[in-house]
Amino acid sequence: MDEVEVVVAHAERATLRVGDVFLKVDADRARLEAEVEAMSLAPVPTPEVLWCRPPVLALAALPGTTLGRLGGPSTGSPAAWAAAGAAIRRLHDAPLPPRPGQAGRDVVALAAELDEECEVLVANGVLPADLVARNRRVAEAALRPWTAAFTHGDLQIAHVFVDGDEVTGIIDWSEAGRGDALHDLATFTLGHEEHLDDVLTGYGKDVDLDVIRAWWSLRSLLIVRWLGEHGFDPFAPGCEVDVLRSRM
């Protein structure tokens, strides 16, 4: 009998693997339905939807392996990273989906959220004040007008599967929708800055590197406290706090 593997679990949702089937449990029915819709519209490889009976979504496993994970080494070749960049570009060039996504939050509201989070990080002694202040200044470049694109919204490298130099699939579309394309590129290269040039080679379009770096700081500042409260370690080597330190 196949064992049940807990892939990820926290208060909002959980993903289990049983053999070649992934079971996503999400108490937010709308978010689950949005994920299925996004996968049906995305012009890139996605997992086969076996069935969806909220609060559970069953997906077939993808061939290949992930490009790596935040805080760990990359297992992908430069060509694989470039192939991922090309896939991301296809997504961003696709017709806009009907829903706003995680990468499409209102700039004014995002700035207010960032300022509030920075105050809490310093007041509670989570991070040093100079580290927070420096990264808040860097993050400012991301708070600008942008042209909406079809975005994944949570494009971590652990969500991209490759077989050799070919992208075999992208998973976890619950945050997908209309958003800032550079948010996707920044999330994908977070903690793996050495592969940014490979990704942009495949992406095939000039981008503002200052905005990508700004998103590295912005995303890390917003998520450090949440990660700690949900059983993850943003202070682990190569993870979010190291990303913030690299901006100093």
Give an overview in words.
The chain has 248 residues and is of the alpha+beta class. The chain has a single domain, classed as Aminoglycoside phosphotransferase (APH), C-terminal lobe (Aminoglycoside 3'-phosphotransferase, Chain: A, domain 2, Alpha-Beta Complex). It is 41% helix and 19% strand. The protein has 8 helices and 10 strands. It has a 5-stranded antiparallel sheet. The protein has a 3-stranded antiparallel sheet with strand order 6-8-9, covered by helices on one side. A two-stranded antiparallel sheet has the order 7-10. A hairpin with a 2-residue loop joins strand 2 and strand 3 (21-26). Helix 2 (78-93) crosses helix 6 (196-203), helix 3 crosses helix 7 (209-229) and helix 5 packs across helix 7 (209-229). The longest helix has 21 residues, at 209-229. The radius of gyration is 18 Å and the shape is globular. The N and C termini lie far apart (51 Å). The relative contact order is 0.17. This is Aminoglycoside phosphotransferase domain-containing protein. Pfam families: APH. Residues 19-203 form the Aminoglycoside phosphotransferase domain. It comes from Streptomyces griseorubiginosus. InterPro entries: AGP_Transferase (IPR051678), Aminoglycoside_PTrfase (IPR002575), Kinase-like_dom_sf (IPR011009).
